[in-house]
Amino acid sequence: MGELGGSAWLALVIAGLWLAIAAALLVLAVRRMREAGAVIDAATSMAALLDVAPARPLLVRPDGSLEADQRLLRELGLERSVTRWADLGGDDQGLIDEDLAALKSAVDASALSGTSIQRQVRASGSDRVFDVRGGPAPAHEPAGTILLWFSDTSAAEAERSKLSLRIRQTEAAFDSLTHLIEAAPFPMWYRGPDLRLGLVNRAFVEAVEARDASDVISRSIELVDASGQDSARASAEAALESGRLQTRIQPATIRGERRVMRIVNVPLTTGAVAGFAIDIQELEDARSELSRHVQSQRDLADRMTAGTVQFDADRNVSFFNQPFAVMAQLDPEWLAEAPEFDRVLERMRERNRLPEVRDFPVWKAEKREWFTSPQEVIEEDWILADGDHLRMVAQPLPDGGLRMFLEDRTEQVRLASARDTLLRVRAATFDNLFEAISVFASDGRLYLWNKRFRDVWDLEEERLTEHPRVDELVPAMARKLVNPTAAAQIREMVRHTTNERQPASGHISLTDGRHFEFAAVPLPDGNALFTMVDVTDSTRIQEALRERATALEQADRVKTDFVANVSYELRTPLTSIGGFAEMLAGGYAGKLAPAAADYVSAILEAVDRLSKLIDDVLALTQGTASGIALERERVDLSGLCRMAVDTVQPRAIEKDQKLEVDIAPSTGFAFGDVRRLRESIEHVLTNAIAYTDKKGRIRIEASGDDEQAVIRIVDNGIGISKQDLPRVFERFDRINETGVRGEAALGLGLPLTRQFIEAHSGHVELESKKGKGTTVTLTIPRGSK
Fold first, then answer.
1. Which residue has the higher pLDDT, 725 or 318?
2. Which residues are listed as membrane-spanning (predicted)?
3. Between the N and C ends of the chain, which has fewer C-beta atoms within 10 Å?
4. Is residue 615's pLDDT more than 70?
5. What is the DSSP letter of 198?
6. Residue 586 falls within a domain, yes or no?
7. What's the structural domain count of the chain?
8. Can you tell me the distance from the alpha carbon of 478 to that of 507, in angstroms, rounded to the nearest whole number?
9. Which distant-in-sequence residues (6+ apart) come within 8 Å of 241 by Cβ?
10. What's the pLDDT at 560?
11. Are 765 and 754 in contact (CB under 8 A)?
């Protein structure tokens, strides 16, 4: 039992060992099977890759036997199996014999030296070419085994042959093109991708006067010497960026002469730019000359009084002038669009520039036949609805076109119609004129007369119709004159006018108390016109006006003398008042109470104002500017203006006005009377303050030049109406305005200003608009001491 138990355990152990070994073998077998499967898959994949590979293998054994791919055999045209070199050729199949022998030699050499093989072989009976590459086979093959790969390069070889042919042709064409470029009579060039000159022809070298092409390229001499956007490089860049041909018209210096060139830059696919330049100076000159000729013809046509329009063979407008557009009342821009003949007629009809017809389509068709009319010239008169009269002339042209002329004869027709009426009206007019009119011919005979002339001289119509000479009329005229000898003067005046062509005039008095002004005027036809105007009433009025003027002058002198005397008489009491007031202010009567001192101060101020007013009145009554006695001294006009401003500043402050001062350094000095000049400026400023509302603005400006100084006072006051402007410089005249008091209300300021300034050979200008303000300009010459 014990022995049996031990044997059983031993058997179990051995069985366990065999089971473990079997399991290990099973695992190993599975791994081997997986590896075998992977190898099989790899082999299958390699076989598939080999099947689609462009190259086919051929294995050469050391004993000279061959193993070839079946597809290779089909490509070589072999239907039999290949085991030896001889099987690869013969009977128009396989390889050509010399290529086969050369390949066998190369294989033998590679087997000995281990070098690689690279050859080309050709198939018999076809144009197929194979590229053979190979060398010793991989290590798992026996030593001396050679593996060759055959690649069909027939298509590549054919393409290579074509390319070789094209290269040869291109080289030949390039050589020809190079010679052509070099022989071209105009400059040509080539720029590389960096846009620097790389090639120029002989014409380019000669144009820039360089030594040779290498000299041009090395110094980068450009044909166009412009800079910026007009430079040659900029034009090439523009062509390269746009990818399109660029053409520019630019001036260039060719052989030292300025010429106009057409510069062309052509972008190339290589990033380079080729270009050429054509001299178009003669073309530009011809074009300019043609343009001037055409323009002169157009200007000449536009200056014609007749309108003209021309139609081409297609009946479209090819030319017209401005008179035609005006006569036809057509828009020149519309005519410039070359409308058709029928459209022109229709548009003219819409503008009422065609005669009214019953059937316009038929009339238009008749006019369309002018293009093929056998007549050389067709003339018609068109009477328009508004009474205008147009003369139309049509001329068919040899090329099938038509030329039309329009002449406005409206005035001629109207003048012809009005001429007879004018003659009748002239006779009726002459007879009804207030003046006595007569026309004497160059020989002194009476040519025309009116009823008034016959009545004044009491002449018979029958005698006048005989056209008597002026000598024959003198006795009849003498009987009617207060001074009979004046008739001879009339005769001499008529002769003087007709012979010497000089006008004359005079005055005569008739015995019946009438007075006449007469005149003789030469006429363009050589005759003389003799007119007599009855001035009896005007003579009487003139005498009355003369008497009135004399009386007014006497009254003005009386008024002036009265004002002057009153002014002188006022000085004596005013001086006494001022003197006593000054004594009171000085304390001669004792110390004054504060109120009394204020009263005395007011009296002194009133005395000063009244004295100044009397001086102004006397200055106005003393006469014109030439009668004023002036002191001559060097006057600082800038300081003078500031003193005047300081004087009137209190009045401006009272009215809350803004008084601006702008005195330029150029104001300078002048030689004159400082008191009169200062008063002139003060008068204008006082007026400006008086006639400007509260919170207004007054501005004084002063400047000058070498000859004169200009002082301008500007205000934004109430201004002066247009009808009142002529009165502003009249003495003792003023413009009534509410709220204006003091010196400005008396009308003294501006007349005194003008009188003082004109005494200095200057002048005063005033500009004003009602409600807009006033500007007074004082122009003061520098003068001399």
1. 318
2. 6-30
3. N
4. no
5. E
6. no
7. 6
8. 14
9. none
10. 61
11. no
Q: How far apart are CA 547 and CA 606, in angstroms?
A: 44
Which amino acid, one-letter code, is at 64? G
Does 391 share its domain with 496? no
pLDDT band at 778 (very low <50, low <70, confident <90, very high): very high
- Cβ atoms 394, 403 nearer than 8 A: yes
393 and 459 both lie in a single domain: no
> Are residues 48 and 64 located together in one domain of the fold?
no
Kindly state whether residues 650 and 671 are assigned to the same domain: yes
The alpha-helical segments, DSSP class H, found in 594-730 are 594-621, 637-654, 674-690
Q: What is the pLDDT of residues 318-372, one digit of tens each?
A: 888 888 888 888 998 999 899 999 999 999 999 898 998 889 999 999 999 999 9
**Assigned domain for 654 exists:** yes
Residues 785, 782: Cα–Cα separation, whole Å: 10
Q: Is residue 669 part of a domain?
A: yes
Residue 742 structure tokens: 């003091």
Q: Is 683 in the same domain as 707?
A: yes
Percent of the chain with pLDDT over 90: 10
State whether 677 and 530 are in the same domain: no
Amino acid found at 696: G
Q: CA-CA distance, 561 to 603, in Å (whole number)?
A: 28
Q: Taking Cα atoms as reference points, which of 613, 603, 629, 623 lies closest to residue 566?
A: 613
The two tokens of residue 521 are 């005027």
Considering 84-88, 255-259, 477-481, the range whose residues carry the highest mean pLDDT is 477-481
257 and 392: one domain? no
Cα–Cα distance for residue pair 490/504, rounded to 1 Å: 10
Among 659, 666, 696, 665, smallest CA distance to 681 is for 659
- Asked if 714 contacts 699 with a C-beta cutoff of 8 angstroms, the reply is yes
Tokens of 781: 């010459």
Q: What is the tens place of the pLDDT at every residue in 455-506?
A: 888 888 888 888 888 888 888 888 888 888 888 888 888 888 888 888 888 8
| Dihedrals phi, psi of 388, to nearest 5 degrees | -65, 145
470 belongs to a structural domain = yes
For residue 648, what is the domain's CATH number?
A: 3.30.565.10
**Residue 445, domain CATH:** 3.30.450.20
**Last residue of a domain, which of 134, 152, 170?**
152
Range of the domain at 41: 16-52
Whether 241 and 132 map to the same domain: the answer is no
**Sign of CA pseudo-dihedral 133, 138, 141, 143:** positive
Go through the chain and tell me how many residues it has.
785
pTM exceeds cut of 0.70: no
**Phi and psi, residue 634, nearest 5°:** -75, 120
